[in-house]
Design brief:
alpha+beta; 4 domains; four-stranded antiparallel β-sheet
Length: 435
């Protein structure tokens, strides 16, 4: 799908030029995988799409035939995984989620063109009508979803049998990826230890917030609209106006208690009341894709008194002094910090820090103690204070092998595991290559 999109966008810039073609050959079956025949035209189409991505297609017939065999091997590998995924009854891909993904992709591609006529012309350049393009997107999206979920399941269950990789192999892989331009520069980064301090609500205030949350949850279960309830009752200022919509998120982006529930929910099912350090949440998942969910929530934050806010600020002031005097951040976090916040942060991309952090750490230097700084100045009635010690600051730079050692090791192990999986599938599936 990505390759086809690249073809269309290249044709947007060159609408009058026909796409380059490989030498015309009478179509024929070049492989059989299980009960499916793979045609030579499919392989040549993959080559044409790859050409649009910058692949240098050889003119020499022997080299072109070698490229065809390599591309055919890739097509066979994908087909092996897809067929196995379809046989796995624990994996399902619904028509609704496929059509949602297709709608979004088609809308995004159409948005790259100034008119319907220009869009149709680009599609004609690759021999498709808009209807045929949608059918192809549908097939590709369904296949991708099955393949991704099957491989993800194998990873999660530890069935990829990665084996081992040597230091020599890792360095060779790093050099190869760097030479190919597949390892970019490292962004400016910062590493620090933090203590995040929030005011503590009283037991009575927490009980009142829970009661409000449970009452709204019951109303939703009886038919009340989730978005309308969020607009009326949520204490989250960033999502209240749009019905509690959090958008798409992956694991690691929300606090642990919230994620455990969100990633276990089926779409359109209302969660029980979930407690985090922010208060009490009601969660509803709208859609699910591999590794991420699109969800909404309603937050009920326990009331915080002036005295509780003042106490939190005094604790933050004390924590800052203690940190400057050599008390470890780990100790201070255990004594005073929010349990849902990690003490060790980074290396983190300085250009991608959350708003409260980006301002507080904009000019920070290694060894410096920062804070107390308000992380959420837009909600002074519920302050959260940051106290941090900067342990490392790096400018944008070219990565070394040591910077990428663990990434390279993980990539190689994953690659080995996938190779073992494909070898196993080839032994269990009928494959006949005729090219």
């Amino acid at each position: 799908m990505k390759l086809l999109l690249a073809v269309l966008l290249s044709l947007q810039q060159q609408p009058a030029q026909p796409p380059p073609q490989t030498p015309q050959v009478v179509d024929r079956i070049v492989a059989i995988v299980g009960d499916r025949a793979i045609l030579l035209s499919e392989v040549d189409e993959k080559i044409n799409e790859a050409r649009q991505q910058g692949l240098q297609v050889p003119q020499d017939s022997a080299q072109l035939e070698a490229l065809r065999r390599q591309m055919l091997s890739n097509v066979i590998d994908e087909e092996l995984v897809y067929q196995q995924a379809r046989r796995d009854t624990s994996i399902s891909v619904t028509d609704a989620e496929v059509q949602t993904a297709v709608d979004e992709q088609a809308r995004r591609v159409r948005g790259q063109f100034h008119s319907d006529a220009e869009y149709r012309t680009a599609l004609q350049g690759v021999g498709l009508t808009p209807e045929e393009y949608r059918r192809r997107l549908t097939d590709e999206q369904r296949r991708q979803a099955y393949v991704q979920r099957y491989v993800s399941r194998q990873r999660q269950e530890g069935k990829l049998r990665p084996g081992t990789v040597s230091e020599t192999e890792m360095r060779a892989f790093f050099d190869e990826m760097k030479a190919a331009g597949r390892i970019g520069r490292l962004p400016p980064s910062i590493t620090f230890k933090q203590v995040v301090i929030s005011p503590h609500s009283s037991l009575a205030e927490r009980a009142a917030a829970f009661a409000r949350a449970d009452s709204v949850r019951l109303a939703i279960e009886r038919g009340a609209d989730f978005s309308e309830m969020a607009r009326r009752f949520s204490d989250d200022p960033t999502t209240k106006a749009n019905g509690g919509d959090l958008g798409w998120f992956r694991r690691g982006q929300m606090v642990r208690q919230f994620e455990e529930v969100a990633f276990a929910l089926r779409p359109n099912v209302v969660s029980p009341v979930v407690q985090t350090e922010y208060g009490y949440h009601i969660i509803m998942v709208d859609r699910v894709q591999t590794g991420q969910v699109k969800a909404r929530h309603i937050l009920f934050a326990p009331a915080v008194s002036d005295s509780e806010r003042a106490a939190a600020r005094r604790i933050a002031d004390s924590a800052s002094v203690l940190l400057q005097n050599g008390v470890s951040a780990d100790t201070l976090a255990k004594l005073y910090g929010d349990s849902g916040e990690s003490v060790n942060v980074g290396p983190a991309d300085r250009t991608q820090l959350p708003p409260g952090y980006s301002q507080a750490l904009a000019n920070a230097a290694a060894g410096q103690v920062i804070g107390p700084v308000a992380l959420n100045p837009e909600t002074p009635d519920r302050p959260r204070w940051l106290v941090a010690k900067i342990t490392d600051v790096q400018a944008e730079r070219e990565p070394t092998f040591e910077d990428k050692r663990e990434d390279v090791r993980a990539a190689l192990l994953d690659q080995r595991g996938l190779q073992h999986l494909l070898e196993d599938l080839r032994q269990r599936t009928y494959v006949s290559v005729r090219l």
